[in-house]
Amino acid sequence: MWAAADDKWDSNWIEMLLNDMKESATNAAFGKIQSIDEHSQKLCHYVNDLTFDYRGIRWYRQLKYFLQFEGAGKANPIYGLWNTADLREIKLGNYSYDYLIVFDLLSKTEIAGSSESIFYKRIHPDAAGGGMHKNSNKGINATARIMLRHLVNPIPDGLISEYVRLASGNKALLIVALPFKYLVAYCFMISNNRFFSKDLS
Questions:
Q1: Cβ atoms within 10 Å of 45's Cβ, excluding its own
Q2: Long-range contact list for 143-148, CB < 8 A, 24+ apart?
């Protein structure tokens, strides 16, 4: 497992993921997300309660992952429970984004999505990724630049070509699906207020 220093797990996190792996006969499992702030208070956020489940034949699970918007929390399954043998087959130096690690691992295994245990994803002013919290110290100008960058190109630079590079046997499928990926990204941004989260209080 990978574990980020500022995130939290349910007390039964590992136990439940291990059970999910056994019951689904998969080599990986991840729970659902609850966003929290720097004081561990719950945040209302578009990734809350999403279940990240990628099962089925290889081309289907990789295509499903590819089509999902990067801003919708899909890198978080990297913090799930994995079969050690699968992790030993990858070289971390080959990837420029967490998304690519998960995508490549999907060529080797399915990921069971669990709704029984919660991963508490901390969002705070100094966080490197995710949507910006309303108390962010980035300022209005920085916020405007980030919003404009996402509107012009909602997908991180170089990511598409890396997906295609890692899509063994599925390259043509990803290229054909590329317009749909941009459509999903813009629809998600419009419908989910992409850039800010709010306190539940």
A1: 24
A2: 143/195, 146/195, 147/195
3-state secondary structure of 72: helix
- At 116 the pLDDT is 83
pLDDT digits (tens, 9 = 90+) for 15-53: 999 999 999 999 999 999 999 999 999 998 888 888 899
**Prediction pTM value:** 0.83
Q: Concatenate the DSSP letters of all residues of 28-68 into one string.
A: EEEEEEEEE-TTS-BEE-TTBT-B--B-SSHHHHHHHHHHS
Outline where DSSP puts E strands in 23-168: 28-36, 43-44, 81-82, 112-122, 132-133
At residue 67 the predicted structure's pLDDT band, cuts being 50, 70 and 90, is: very high
59 has a pLDDT exceeding 50: yes
